[in-house]
Amino acid sequence: MAADISPRPQARRPVLLSRIEALQDVVNTAAIIPKEDGVISVSQDRTVRVWLKRDSGQYWPSVYHTMLGPAGNPQVSDWEILQISSLLTTPCSCMSFNPETRRLSVGMDNGVISEFILSEDYNKMTPARTYQAHQGGVTVVLFVLEMEWVLSTGQDKSFTWHCSESGQQLGTYRTTAWVSGLQFDVETRHAFVGDHSGQVTILKLEQDSCSLVTTFKGHTGNVTALCWDPVQRVLFSGSSDHSIIMWDIGGRKGTAIELQGHNEKVQGLCYAPHTRQLISCGSDGGIVVWNMDVTRQETPEWLDSDSCQRCEQPFFWNFKQMWDSKKIGLRQHHCRKCGQAVCGKCSSKRSTIPLMGFEFEVRVCDSCHESITDEERAPTATFHDSKHAVVHMHYEPTRSWLLTSGADKVIKLWDMTPVVS
């Protein structure tokens, strides 16, 4: 069989295209409008804005809408809005935009989801429906066109789904902790729910019921982001523990690959299927582009031992061996490559192990350090500085554009078009 010698797209440094700065508060969620020079944002300042690029090259709001009241849209005068805004206005926490129907679903801190239809020129936003979805703030909302479902999660530790045609609630599922991540697979009707305990729950949804498929936990911190690739049938989860885990759902072997490339909380994940690259952003300002077109290895389980598995010196709790050998007990460490329990003297070296997801240098035992080749140390990710603490990200695959919104109240648009080598 002939070898595949076709050129492979390679990641390049993101090119900053535009900045949107006319914001009064942090943007909780934003999305690029496909086939348009436009962006939709929802903010902590209670506004929904549609930004369109003008002839000047700057983005200005064509729609500026303040979310009001339990139903979200009372018809009141400007003076009345000013008088009662402190009572009626509510921050926008999340949103979902479907470009085919131009349907915008906005989740709010009062548990309400308000639905709007945007005009073809994106200069008008018409209220369509309101859902009283949660008792606490809405954390994630997804509109599934194929099912005509509105899926949502909330601070009230619940996952719900509504019929978008009737507005009726179809079902709900109670979670063990505040839910912070949600993805859905249309083909199998599986919902992936990540929560603040670090657990991911898989649910099988029916029209008016759901069943628990399984749960798994690999993070030591909150699940902060989920990304589902329906082709490879792989789920990516990001966490406040700075790590990303790739869960091979389709392989049915329980394979979980760790990716360590952020110094702070992972805030967003997007997968680019045409280049087989995972893009992650963090509150450290980092944009990391991971090459997933390589054969990665699972990190080993850490082994238990009462003494160093290299030099056999006792660890400090092993009183019997300490007494018998008349030696002082040592602190236990673990080699990240083989998982063996080792002392500090036998693990004095550091190395990157990119195929295991360790793009930063980590502790390895002296034996493993000698065995790691320069080829195995070759990086499988590229690192870029967005120069703001990322709160949210969105990837638009048709143009390879990336949006980041930051704690600095700025939205940035990046060109992520790969180069072909």
From TrEMBL:
GO biological process, one term: positive regulation of fat cell differentiation
Gene3D superfamilies associated with the record: YVTN repeat-like/Quinoprotein amine dehydrogenase (2.130.10.10), Zinc/RING finger domain, C3HC4 (zinc finger) (3.30.40.10)
Protein location: Early endosome
UniProt source species: Astyanax mexicanus (Blind cave fish)
Repeat (WD) residue spans along the chain: 20-51, 216-249, 259-293, 383-416
Main location: other
Database matches in Pfam families: FYVE (PF01363), WD40 (PF00400)
SUPFAM superfamilies linked to this entry: FYVE/PHD zinc finger (SSF57903), WD40 repeat-like (SSF50978)
GO MF annotation: an example: zinc ion binding
Domain (FYVE-type): residue spans on this chain: 302-373
CDD domains named among the record's database cross-references: FYVE_WDFY1_like
GO CC annotation, single: early endosome
Alphabetic keyword roster: Endosome, Metal-binding, Repeat, WD repeat, Zinc, Zinc-finger
Protein name in the entry: WD repeat and FYVE domain containing 2
